[in-house]
């Protein structure tokens, strides 16, 4: 019997915004599992990206605030210059040292979600250069989470997904347009089980 999925953690860099928009647009309207997103981008651009994805996908997306409760059916994006993690069902923001010269770091988010949610989480690593997120995704998989990486053909830059695959951190390697359907099926198992 699959574990109940309570949270989805997503990491992306170069090429990420369009893929995030594709995924969120493809989710069913009654999708209730919250998503936490770290997107590497230049300072000052996160707000514009969040507004664009929210409007174009129809999925509620906003910039995360420290201490706010993680609510169903919403996506939270790490703000400029802060690592994002979780503490039970609340968002934690941190000015801890950058990891791989990055803050927010995808691995920081994945480690936090792995430690709090374990097998009740899904981790997704999307297009981007470098290796941020690969080790964190491996930790999520080791703790029983379902892990997804974007395939090479649909990635603008295959660095981050490739690094995760090399660590055997991926349960699934998928083209960007298939990820939403897999998320829906993973969470529908929970819905079907609740009805029985």
Summarize the structure.
The chain has six helices and nine strands, in the order βαβαββββαβαβαβα. The radius of gyration is 15 Å and the shape is globular. Helices cover 37% and strands 20% of the residues.
Q: Over all CA atoms, what is the radius of gyration?
A: 15 Å
Largest sheet: 7 strands, parallel
* Percent in strands: 15-25%
* Category by helix and strand content: alpha/beta
Q: What is the CATH C-level name?
A: Alpha Beta
Distance N terminus to C terminus? 13 Å
Please tell me what the overall shape is: globular
Q: How many independent structural domains?
A: 1
**Strand numbers in spatial order across the main sheet:** 3-4-2-1-7-8-9
From the coordinates shown, what is the CATH architecture?
Answer: 3-Layer(aba) Sandwich
Helix content: 25-40%
Task: Tally the helices.
Answer: 6
Order of helices and strands: EHEHEEEEHEHEHEH
CATH fold field value: Rossmann fold
């Amino acid at each position: 019997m699959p574990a109940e999925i309570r949270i989805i953690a997503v990491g992306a860099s170069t090429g990420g915004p369009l893929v995030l928009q594709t995924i969120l647009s493809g989710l069913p309207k009654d999708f209730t599992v919250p998503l936490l997103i770290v997107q590497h981008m230049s300072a000052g651009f996160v707000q514009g990206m969040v507004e664009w994805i929210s409007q174009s996908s129809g999925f509620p997306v906003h910039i995360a605030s420290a201490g706010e409760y993680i609510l169903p059916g919403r996506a939270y994006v790490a703000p400029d210059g802060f690592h994002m993690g979780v503490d039970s069902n609340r968002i934690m923001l941190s000015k801890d040292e950058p990891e791989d010269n990055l803050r927010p770091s995808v691995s920081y988010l994945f480690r936090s979600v792995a430690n709090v949610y374990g097998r009740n989480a899904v981790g997704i690593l999307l297009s981007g250069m470098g290796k941020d997120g690969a080790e964190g995704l491996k930790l999520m998989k080791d703790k029983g989470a379902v892990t997804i990486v974007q395939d090479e053909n649909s990635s603008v830059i295959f660095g981050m997904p490739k690094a995760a695959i090399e660590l055997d951190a991926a349960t699934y390697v998928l083209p960007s347009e298939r990820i939403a359907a897999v998320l829906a099926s993973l969470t529908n198992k929970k819905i079907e089980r609740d009805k029985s």
